[in-house]
Amino acid sequence: MPIVEAHILEGYSATEKSRLTSALTNAIRFVVPAPDVAITVMLHEYPSEAYARGGQHRQPAPALPDPSTIVRDYLTSMEARDLEAAQSMLREDFQMVFPATDPMTRLSELIEWSKARYRSVKKTYDGFDALHGNGVAVVYARGTLHGEWLDGTPFDGIRFIDRFEISEGKIVRQDVWNDMGEVRAQ
Amino acid sequence: MPIVEAHILEGYSATEKSRLTSALTNAIRFVVPAPDVAITVMLHEYPSEAYARGGQHRQPAPALPDPSTIVRDYLTSMEARDLEAAQSMLREDFQMVFPATDPMTRLSELIEWSKARYRSVKKTYDGFDALHGNGVAVVYARGTLHGEWLDGTPFDGIRFIDRFEISEGKIVRQDVWNDMGEVRAQ
Amino acid sequence: MPIVEAHILEGYSATEKSRLTSALTNAIRFVVPAPDVAITVMLHEYPSEAYARGGQHRQPAPALPDPSTIVRDYLTSMEARDLEAAQSMLREDFQMVFPATDPMTRLSELIEWSKARYRSVKKTYDGFDALHGNGVAVVYARGTLHGEWLDGTPFDGIRFIDRFEISEGKIVRQDVWNDMGEVRAQ
Amino acid sequence: MPIVEAHILEGYSATEKSRLTSALTNAIRFVVPAPDVAITVMLHEYPSEAYARGGQHRQPAPALPDPSTIVRDYLTSMEARDLEAAQSMLREDFQMVFPATDPMTRLSELIEWSKARYRSVKKTYDGFDALHGNGVAVVYARGTLHGEWLDGTPFDGIRFIDRFEISEGKIVRQDVWNDMGEVRAQ
Amino acid sequence: MPIVEAHILEGYSATEKSRLTSALTNAIRFVVPAPDVAITVMLHEYPSEAYARGGQHRQPAPALPDPSTIVRDYLTSMEARDLEAAQSMLREDFQMVFPATDPMTRLSELIEWSKARYRSVKKTYDGFDALHGNGVAVVYARGTLHGEWLDGTPFDGIRFIDRFEISEGKIVRQDVWNDMGEVRAQ
Amino acid sequence: MPIVEAHILEGYSATEKSRLTSALTNAIRFVVPAPDVAITVMLHEYPSEAYARGGQHRQPAPALPDPSTIVRDYLTSMEARDLEAAQSMLREDFQMVFPATDPMTRLSELIEWSKARYRSVKKTYDGFDALHGNGVAVVYARGTLHGEWLDGTPFDGIRFIDRFEISEGKIVRQDVWNDMGEVRAQ
User: Fold this and answer.
1) S-S: E96 plus which of A66, B184, E56, E174, CB 3.0-4.6 Å?
2) Confidence label for F186 from pLDDT (cuts 50, 70 and 90)
3) Residues A78 and A159 in one domain
4) Is the minimum CB–CB distance between F40 and chain D shorter than 8 Å?
């Protein structure tokens, strides 16, 4: 049953408004088990001159980029070993933790580390989850890995999950879990 | 800058309304980088007689339970080996996937499987993430494991992440990743 | 899809609010073919101190009585020949037109006129329609008549329709059509 | 005092919006005796991208045609004996009941029936009433008939009322009452 | 914390809307000590066809001119002794009261009166206050006077305050206080 | 025509809400020449749990006292020479300017100064104006003075105007103008 009105400044694209209606719809569903048709979201848009906070007219803050898209682009760049492109998506204080590793801060460290583990690896995605929490966007990507071990034997179907934190459009943290250790041990 | 008005039926508790204002605030932040003080959420509450959909007055749907609480309770019951309590939180078609296992459907299977891996295990939580997506509530719990291997040697600091899907208050799916395989291999 | 918010002063009964949500729902449907579930009506109610027009706080105007109820009560009183009760529902300048009669203003005229036509008559209702238009409430009652002709033979199933205009709770006009003339002629 | 806000999708014509504000104004007046100047109706219009129900953006449903206009056009076509035009306004399961007749379903039946009653007939309108109720639009047309009896003598001033039910722009039912039987009997 | 929505007809300029958001912000602050960032004003604008009062569509009333601007223009014209321009800003029944004078109605009276007091006078403004109250706009202008006494000696720094009432864009009343009497007496 | 909705937290008294509706009505009139009956102000009140800014529930800020009342009380205390009561209404950095005086900061200074001018003085009020501007409440009190000169001769009808600035319920500035200098000079 809930009906949501959000009041925003003019200037957001249709896609950004769709992301907003979608996020608000999911926020309602998170708490209230209303059927789909009963949740309506409406956006009131105001030109700057018709909106004042503290007596000052305001300009709309540019929408945040879709964090899932950032994560997909990053993972694609990493698979393609385009480290320059991948690096450009990271904040200066970026940190990543891979299975049973200490935190790493540079992509070159990761590449070095992986050389001792497999020749190549690719991801097949089962799904993404994204949310805002504690001041950052959080994105989960999960699915399975396939590729070649160091000895050239292929592997596939190895489950993985990556967790990302994104702030102001930059990735600040990546945590990775997967079943490679289990599989190798078999 | 966004201001959100949500129109709901009367009958939700203060806690449920807080969960709703919080979820709506996060939904806005997911798309718009507004400063905290500029995001306002207001709930209009209507008695049944002042709210009609399709010409019919409506009763509020009971709020969904907090899925993070369900997950915490479930994990606590499992740690305490209170299988009966844990089972009562699962939907009939519940399925779980643990590292390098086939899907399991009964908790007894899991207990059996774990007996071959460790004497005991406990969780320390680093954080929970929860969202609504694709018709279900999704909860992530992550942190580290400590306990005893089969030979009695202790372990701790082993990273884990659990992903849960919850529907209508029941857990329908659990996916678990952790670094046990990596650690055992070392 | 339309969502309607009506802002009213506090003080209306649940029944009056239901009549209002129902009238607003029908108003939408009159113009937009929205499915039932997509039309929501919400009433915001304000205590007098939170509502000012022209800088003056206001008291709610008492709701108008349901005009269909007035018409039913009037027709029931007439059938029971309780002319006093019926008369009390009429405005001073009340006028009625029956099939092929000149306008009448007093119920006694009607009784006199009917004596030349039948011994008794009762109504069975097929339906009522009610609306507001041109400053008055309009109510239509339709159905069939049964009773006895002057010679004692019974009749039934004779179609009728009555149109009423009601202003401020009083009936100001009644227009009657029926098939008695056709039936008698057969 | 009531103030009404209706939230609709963009795309309705000025005339359609006027019909909506008018219907909502009458809906309020049906229940609350507010003076004219105190009833305000405001329409919020949303582009599709700023409106989502169940997480889906929506297109506005085309407005229903004005049912009074349909009825006028139909009656005009019938007077002009343009049966083809009149037929096109009827739904397949159309039914009509005239004074002391069985239900008829085809306009040719009606023409045949009327040939035994008068040479010609025209309507002068005193007024129309229209509303939405029970899932259909209902239109009442009332006034007087004039024309020629079978023997060529003229008649006029014979009261009539027609009731129509319209669904999705098509007439599904017509009920007719008039004083012809009374007049002929005199 | 207060959030204000004002519903107005389309047609006001950006400047007029700014004046409105500013006046509404000040109205809130007059009663509630909310911090600046917590007071938001939003203007909903409706085309005529989407706004009806008493069932009638409406045209926006032209905004009132800024009364402070009228007062500034008037005082500037008076300083420049452009009596024609000044006169055009006065309503027919204009009245003014200067220190220890009877009410005057014509600017020529004022000029005559002042000739016995000083050769010339100019204003330096410290500030303006403007508000709406009791059906008129009220403007206060205050600051200091400088000029020459009748004997040619200069003066300056003499405090003054003028109070104006403005109705429908015309000045209807001016009341003047200043310290000239005190200063001359010293 | 404008309709104003203000969203506030629950907890304000009826009087405070009346002050708010009144201030908002005057704010509209300051810009738009709408007739009285066309300006409606409605206050939506929210319990703390249904209102969140920046994800935090809020308590209502206590309403500011009516600054005109503060000014009246202060002037009454001064007339009664209740300096203690008057002093309690002043902020520490209070400053006052009387005709042709330097700024004074203590009430005792004022009393001393006045002793050289008159034996006693009382105010008759013609009106008050109050507004919020530049971060302070501004109150104007105007009318006439009556009392006794030092030689015991009475005076009355001497015009005065006082301007006050009030911040957080304390008077921070008083500026006084009157015609005493003019009158004494006559």
Assistant:
1) E174
2) confident
3) yes
4) yes
Rounded to a whole number of angstroms, the distance from the CA of E85 to the nearest CA of chain F is 24
In a domain, E62, yes or no: no
b/e burial code for range A15-27 (CB count within 10 A of at least 16 → b): ebbbbbbbbbbbb
pLDDT at residue C72 above 90? yes
Residue A138 lies in a domain: yes
Give the nearest chain D residue to A22 (CA atoms). D55
Neighbouring residues of A149: CB distance < 8 A, sequence distance ≥ 6: A118, A119, A155, A184
Structural domains of chain F, count: 2
Residues A53, A76 share a domain: no
CATH of the domain at B34: 3.30.429.10
What's this model's pTM, rounded to 2 decimal places?
0.94
How does pLDDT run across F154-164, given as a tens digit for each residue? 999 999 999 99
CB-CB neighbors (< 8 A) of A51 in chain B: 1
What pLDDT tens digit does each residue of chain B (186 aa) get? 699 999 999 999 999 999 999 999 999 999 999 887 789 999 999 999 999 998 999 999 999 999 999 999 999 999 999 999 999 999 999 999 999 899 999 999 999 999 999 999 999 999 999 999 888 999 999 999 999 999 999 999 999 999 999 999 999 999 999 999 999 877
* C44 close to F (CB below 8 A): yes
Residue C69 phi, psi (nearest 5) = -65, -40
Chains A and C touch (3+ CB pairs under 8 A): yes
Q: Which residues pair with C122 in a beta bridge?
A: C146
Token pair belonging to F163: 């301007």
Q: Which residue of C has its CA nearest to B7?
A: C42
Q: Determine whether the interchain pair A26/B184 forms a contact, defined as Cβ–Cβ distance below 8 Å.
A: no
C61 touches chain F (CB under 8 A): no
Domain span at residue B42 reads 3-57
Say whether the B–D interface has 3 or more Cβ pairs within 8 Å: no
Nearest CA among B113, B112, B120, B127 for reference residue B156: B120
Give E128 to chain F, closest Cα distance, Å: 10
Look at E18 and A49 and tell me if their CB atoms are within 8 Å. Answer: yes
Task: Say how far apart CA F29 and CA F39 lie, in whole Å.
Answer: 8
